[in-house]
Specification:
This protein has one domain: Porin (Beta Barrel), CATH 2.40.160. 8% of the residues lie in helices and 63% in strands. The chain contains 1 helix and 8 strands; from the N terminus they run H-E-E-E-E-E-E-E-E. The chain has one helix spanning 20-36, and strands spanning 47-59, 66-80, 83-94, 104-120, 123-142, 145-165, 170-186, 189-205. Strands 1-2-3-4-5-6-7-8 form an 8-stranded antiparallel β-barrel. A hairpin with a 2-residue loop joins strand 4 (104-120) and strand 5 (123-142). The longest helix is centred in the N-terminal third of the chain and has 17 residues, at 20-36. The radius of gyration is 34 Å and the shape is elongated.
């Protein structure tokens, strides 16, 4: 009893000690809503694929056209579902050009944009325009008969094709191009050639974001 004659009762309440495991669970449950509000990743990098396959070129030589066979390799980076950039390296070769004992070959190095026309259940169709150069070697007529010569000039490939994805990381691509290159008509002169190119290749998709 205090001086005013009233009773004063004091209660003492002790918070029970929380065990470490219970404390951890409570902290985890409290953190879940905060984690759900964390900023999401804005986007990922380009989808990259590489291909290697068979290449056929019908070379527009004179007086007769020649059939050349070889390999073609590409690397493509898709920055958008409808747009990518392709690097293309090809080499084809044929023997006994124009009835001579000389061979002809074409080494092409091209790059340019690829536009995807459609994509449906693993099947994609595309068109592309590739520019660069081509080193064309073959039989060159001259004053002393036929000799072997070469020329390295700008080249252009315009065409398209289809690509079928058969698994997460593998696909098959078939394409055809109009290939414009130059060829020596004499030791001192050359002119442009209208050529046809067809390529069939196996495609490997890198990373975790295949088409």
């Amino acid at each position: 009893m205090d001086s005013a004659g009233a009773f004063r009762i004091e209660f003492a309440y002790q918070i029970p000690e929380m065990k470490p495991i219970k404390l951890f669970i409570c902290s985890l449950l409290a953190a879940i809503p905060v984690f759900g509000q964390a900023p999401k990743i804005a986007g990922s990098g380009p989808t990259i694929d590489a291909s290697l396959g068979y290449s056929y070129v019908n070379l527009g030589l004179q007086p007769s056209r020649e059939n050349l066979n070889g390999l073609d390799a590409t690397i493509t980076a898709d920055f958008h579902p409808r747009f990518g950039v392709t690097l293309d390296l090809g080499y084809v070769r044929g023997s006994d050009v124009n009835g001579s004992t000389r061979h002809a070959d074409v080494l092409s190095y091209l790059a340019g944009p690829s536009l995807y026309v459609s994509r449906n259940r693993g099947l994609s169709t595309y068109v592309h325009v590739l520019g660069g150069g081509a080193r064309v070697t073959g039989a060159v007529p001259g004053p002393h008969g036929i000799s072997r010569g070469y020329i390295n000039q700008p080249a252009l490939a315009v065409g398209g094709g289809a690509e079928f994805q058969i698994s997460r990381f593998l696909g098959v691509r078939v394409g055809a191009d109009y290939l414009r290159a130059s060829y020596l008509t004499s030791p001192t002169a050359f002119h442009g050639l209208n050529n046809f190119r067809a390529v069939t290749s196996v495609v490997y998709f890198f990373g975790s974001n295949p088409r």
